[in-house]
Amino acid sequence: MKDQSNFQVAVIKGNTPETSVFEGIKMLGGISNFINEGDNVFIKFNLYSPEGFPTNTNFDILGAVINLCKEAGANKISIGSFPAFKVPIKAISDLLRIEKYFNTLGAEFVFLDNSNLYGKKEFTIEELKIIKSKSLSKVKVNDKEFLVPRVILESDKFISVNQVNVNPLFKLNFSLLNSYSMISTYNQEIEKTTENKSEYVSLDKYKQELKTKIIDVFTIKQPKLVINDLFYILEGAGPFIYKDSNLKKTEYLVIGNNSIATDIITLKMLNLELEDCDLILDARNKISYELKPSEIKTIGVDLKDIDINIEFCATKLEDIDVSNVSIRSGRYCSGCFKQAYHLLNFMKTKMIKDLKYNPRNSFLIGENPPNPNNPKNIILFGDCAINSTKESDFRKVIKKSKKSIKNDVNKKNNNKSKASKEGKIKLKKNEKILELEGCPPDIFSCIDFMIKYYGKINVPNLCLFNKTIKLWSNRSIREKLDIWEAF
Amino acid sequence: MINNKFKDNWRNILEFNSKIEIWDRSKISEEEVRIPLTPITIKASILYYLFEILYPKFINDQQNILDIIISDEEKEILGLYLYQTSKAGIHETIQKLPNDIIKLHKKDYENIDKFFKRIQETMMKKNSVRISSIRMFYKEGINLLNRYSSDIEEKSIESSVFKIIELIQTLFEKNLFLIYPEPTICRFLKEFFLTLNNIRLYKFFKFLYKLLPEFNLSFLLSSEKQNIILHLQKIKSNLEKSNLRLELKTFYELGIDNKALNRKVLLNKIQESLKTEKTYFIKQKDLISIFTDFIELLVPIKKENLKFLFQELLFGYRSFEDHWELMPRPLIYNSLIRFLLRLLGFNYNLRKISHWSIPDLIFDLLDSFFGLNSKVLVLFTDVGSLKKLDSEKDNYLKNSIKNSLFLEIENSTLTNLKLVSPESLFSNTESNSLESIRSRCIKEFGFITAIIVIDNTLIKYFIEDFIYNHSKFALTSKLKMLKMVKNEYYFNIFPKFPLYKVIKKRGIFSNLRLFLPILIDKHEF
Fold this sequence. Notes:
Number of strands of chain B: 17
Low-confidence stretches of chain A: none
Distance between the termini of chain B: 64 Å
Distance between the termini of chain A: 35 Å
Number of helices of chain A: 20
Number of strands of chain A: 17
Largest sheet of chain B: 5 strands, mixed
Radius of gyration of chain A: 26 Å
Helix content of chain A: 25-40%
Strand content of chain B: 15-25%
Mean pLDDT of chain B: 90
Shape of chain A: elongated
Helix content of chain B: 40-55%
Largest interface: A-B, 44 and 35 residues
Largest sheet of chain A: 9 strands, mixed
Radius of gyration of chain B: 26 Å
Low-confidence stretches of chain B: none
Number of helices of chain B: 20
Oligomer: heterodimer
Shape of chain B: globular
């Protein structure tokens, strides 16, 4: 454990994010305090998806950090990240065209998943296996095995440049989460370890496992320099850009020499207590047990003078106001919550017209969700919702014979003479149910299923967005990645 | 102090305005005056009407105005002119007051409200007039006005339009003119010119004017009080120079008796009388409403406000034969043609444009790819000026670049605009691809999110096909324009926006099938 008395965090308020980086590092003793001449440096940033800022880190801040590393005489500067989805890094890099940008700055953009190679025909499977074993290394932490890129493990200095956005599971995207994407999205997945489904949900094993995994990965290689970029924070809905997202300008940057300390100060700046964020609390307890917020040495702006209030993500799915969708939840785990949160926000943002064309939808999630008001357009999200509602009333709809319809009309009209014996009433399977399987379901598959269910003609906007998504996440791209990950 | 031509014309206007309450408006419609600061001559009664409806709406809706001319050093008053108006906006009389009745103090410019109240008190005490508004001109501003007005009658309309835009921009940028209480339009213009960052607005209009096709249009601007017919023409003169012609007329001047005639017949009669290609019907109150909504926006214009304005415009556009009308009636509004198109799989009903969802969709697409904060470089080219296109493939950008504009967007709001010298973007020795340009700009601009290349020819076709002939069912020319969007010489974007990639990959008909259901509502009723 690092000597906690050395934990230092600088809080800077500046005119531009770049000048704040320079100023903050100067406050912490200059870049030479972090980087020595001849060091091989790896910069980990957020590269979630082919979207603009603030989904991904501010590239101007990265430029400033690269320049500082060069100034300190770094031998080699590498930069990279795994994305948020199961897509090759190359697919994202090709859309954003960032490789040359970093090269021009003097850093090498590293394809941590080697996606720049495995798409090429000239490599045989055997050669690719060798490449994979050479570029990734197995690291064991608490009996769990992680595949970590060697370029990170072997770097002399590891820097984390993290964009702080709101996050549905952990309130904020902390630097700890930025470190987590040093392993591939496949490796990040949470496997169901318990047979008891009910326990898995009630104890929220998903989140417990996830937190443990994040902390374990963090211990593999801790960053020597951590930058939490709060100059602009994405509030309301995040960490991707949704309809309810808003970019708040705070003009603050938090820079420190320890991730947990930097994240704790970031929490404090946003009027949050350590207890409000279980991930940071767990990390503090496991890694630096005695670290109290008051013991972290802060320089720069006095924390008492900072009062930033932001709007966090919805904590209940029912709070996401999607037009023409009634959300009904049973008991669900954090895995399903996270995916449902993203799907509902996606629907709210991209399907405005589509939802107008398809009114009265019910979105059922979790174990034993309440019955929908309407028997049409029922979306069952996740295995829990599908399995626990197998016998529910809405699974069947009443099919009336022509005779019974006629009788109903006659009864309504008080025409007793015409009302004959009761017609036959049959129950038939409700076909207006969309089952989105998975534990938790995959968003891309959900989109495909929704198009199939509603029909292309009824969801024109979704069809367009699906076509743009397919550019970086189509079946062939994902198949190649699956093969690579399976080696 | 004021230019004589301006003064004489202004006196004529005042004289006319002072008589109009006594006489019947229609009887004095032969008198003509110039619209102040323009070479356009119109009937004095129309100008009276324009002042009557526009001045109270956009400048000040109260009576009595005081014009103050002050020295550039802000030390002395050089002129005081009182307009006692019985009706807001209608200037009838002018009275020169002694300059010393109001004393100037150093702090007057810091607290203009206090200064205004002092003027009000003084005017009440000395002239028994309650002033509702002051217009302050600096001497430099008056000099600029005089210089501009010196040869006003000889100027062509287009050049006077460009010059007046430049004059207004200079007056606001240098704070040479102010009205207090400040009207919304002045606040808007001040903020707008500030965002322009010294980019000359008239150059933009000049650029657009060059790209406009020749046209001959008339507009029936209707209202219950006074209908006005605007005749607008862009013609090619013998001197191979485009000329703009603008006339404002009344039914009386065209010899049309508008009583008991329906709208369609009126439009036909106007078209016949002025021999125009098209005649539009627009309600004056709608135009004023849109303009008012526009100037009420705070600059930089927030995304939500822009979305709302865009929705309003689209709603107006879909309200054909309700809020506006066009003669000859476009074929696309013919139900049979629309039915046939629908049989072919194309739902092209302009009355069903999704005004409520299109703005959201467009802004969402921009937000997700460019991000909420972005820097965009826009390059305007003129590929048509190159002799050979293919042989110059690598360098065509460098050789055809005309202008380049740098845009900075913060939280989806345009906050900064800057003209960039094209020379700083290109190299004589290295590659001039868009990726290389982005790398070359790192020092000056940091990370550029996207570079967009737009050719003049594309803008020209866009104006012609989608603005001028917006309702015309000219399939071939519209398809030609859409095809140009896919041609990198005319339109390019770096890095390739996923949506642009989708458009490029698909054929035109396939794109129409993809986009029409998004742009047009499904239900006919």
